[in-house]
Amino acid sequence: MNVVNLLESCAKEYGQSPAIVFRQAQISFAQLRDKVFSLSQSLLKLGVKPRDKVAIYLPSWPEYIYSYLATWSIGACAVPLDFMLTEDEIVSCLAHSEAKILITKHKANISFTNLKANLPPLKNIISCQSKDEESLSFEELLANGSNQPPKVEIKEKDHAIIFYTSGTTGKPKGVLINYAQLDAPPKSMAFFVNSDLSAKDTTLCALPFSHLGGLIYIQNMITFSLTMVLMERFVPLDFLKNVQNYKVNFFWIVPSMYYALLQLKEFETFDLSSLRWIVTFGASSSPDALRRFNQFCPRASLLNGWGLTETNAPTVVLPMGSKNIESVGRPAPWMEVKVFSDNDQEKPAGQTGEVVVKSWVVCDGYFKDEKLTQETIRNGWFHTGDLGKFDEQGFLYIVGRKKEMIKVGGEIVFEPEVEAGLQKHPDIAEAAVIGVADKLRGEVPKAFLVVKEGKNISEEDLRFFLRQHLAHFKIPHYFEFCTVLPKNRTGKIDKERLRK
Predict the structure, then answer these.
(1) Out of 32, 307, 371, 379, which residue is the most buried by the measure of CB atoms under 10 Å away?
(2) pLDDT single digits (tens) 163-173
(3) What does the alpha-carbon distance between residue 67 and residue 56 come to, in Å, rounded to a whole number?
C-alpha cells in the first residue's frame, strides 16, 4: 500500500468530497492529504527514519488517522495503542516496541514525566489539543510542516505496524504486519463484496483504531475514496442515528454490538434502507439475532466473517447473497485455510480441528519473540487457536477457541454452542458461557446472563427451554444473572474477566 500515492489520487479525484465526518464536521480528501503530509514532514524533521517506531495513544479521533497515515508516508512503523490502557501497560508496550515517538493527549493518571523517565528510547511526546513543556504540540506540527509529499523509499518487507493484542504488563505480544500486507484487508473487502465499493459510499466506524477492525476503515477509506463517519465510541442509539442521518451504506461490527442495537426500544423506528451490506466478525453465537437485524434492512446482504489480527482479517467471509449465516464463509483465492488435527494432519470435511492459514497476508510473527513465532507458524501454516470444520461445499464453521472447549465427563462442549442455545430464548439479551471445575465431571458449563429489561427468568425455566435445543450434558449447571457483561474495547465479551 503506497499511502502517499493513494492520498494524492484521492485529493486529485475527490478533493472536496468528505473523507471523514466527525462530530458533524467534515474533513475533505484535500484537507486529509495536507494534514497527513504536514505531519509526516514534521516527523522527518524530528529525526524519524524508516523502521523507527511511532506509537499512537489516542481516542478514535481524526488525529489517530493522520498519525497512522503520516507514519506510513515516511516508512516508519506504527504502534497503535488502546486508549483504555493504564500507564503501566503503556510503559510495557512502549518499552517492548522501542518507540521513538508517542502521539497522545493528556489523560488523568498518565504522567508524561514518568513516561520519559522510564523510557530512554522515547525521544518526543506529541500531545493533541494541549501545549506544555513536556511535549510538542500536535497542532503546531500540522501548522508548521510542509504539505508536500514526503520522498522516502519504503520497502515492502519493512514493518508497518506492531499490533499489541493485549495490554499486559508481563510479556507483551506484538503482531508484526509489513507494508505489503497493508494491501490485504482492502483486497479482501473488494473480493468478498464483489467490488461493491465506490467513492459514492458512506461507511460508519465505531471500532477503535488500535484494533484491526478499526484500521480496516482507514485502509478502505483511502483505497476506495469512501466517506467515513467516525464515532469516538460505540453508543447504540447514536449509531443508528448516524446510519439514518448519513445514509450509511455498510459497516462491520462485532456480535455484541448487534445485540445492543436490537435491545433498543427505538430500534424499529429507524430507517436503515440505505444499507447495502453489513458484516459481523467474530463467529457470531446468535445467527437468529443477526437475521432479526437484517429484517429491518432487507436490501442489505448479511455477511458473516472470520479472521485474526495475525491473518490480516477478513480471512474468510460468507459470499454475497448467501443465507448460510451459521457459516463464516469461504476463504479468498489467495488464502489457504485448512483444519488440522493435534499432530498437524489435515482433517476431512465434517471433522473439527484447529483452523490454520497459509498466505502472504499472514503476519511476520511476533516482535522480539522468536519462540512464540516458531510455535505459532509451523511449516508455513499459522495456527490460529480457533476450532472449526468445513462442510462438503467448502464453507467454514467456527465452533470456538481451544480454550472455549469444556470437557464434561468425557464429552466435549463448545462454549459458543451453549451460548447460541441461550440466545434463542426471547428474554435473553446477552449470554456468555465458561467452564468451571467440578469434582464429579471435571468441568461443567456456567452461564452468565443479561435478561431483557422488564423480563424475569428462573433457572428452572431456562433448563426446560434448553432441553429443547441442547443435549443434557451441554446445559449449564450454574446460572449467574448480571446487569451487564464485561466487554473489551472491540465490544467483545471479556471472558477472561468472567473466569477470574
Answers:
(1) 307
(2) 997 544 456 78
(3) 7
